[in-house]
Design a protein that fits this description.
By secondary structure, the chain is mainly beta. Helix content is 14%, strand content 40%. The protein has a domain of 85 residues. Strand 3 and strand 4 form a beta hairpin.
Amino acid sequence: MEMENSMNILMIDENVNKELTRANVIELLQNDVAQVTFTKTDGTERVMDCTLLKEVLNERAPQTDEVTTEKPPKKVNEEVLPVWDMVANGWRSFRLDSVKSIGFPQSIFTDAGIIYPTLETN
């Protein structure tokens, strides 16, 4: 069984670097809205408020129930993670090996005035 690669990522709220796998990052984003800082392929730094939180995806990126058998399913690129960009209001992605830090702001304000509070883990 192949071991999943991990990345050394600064967790801003804890002010500590952690070894995180792709699955760890996905789990964080499924439970909250995060501020991810990463280096784009052109070398510039980007800070993105993003999530995989079901409540946000259900509201902003509804899935169709259609099942099509015309095309085979796409192979997942394990080095890239698609996420919902809260500011751009659309799907974006980043390379996992380019992530510098992940933080969890107290709340995210959207253009519609909606606030998505971060989940308390106390």
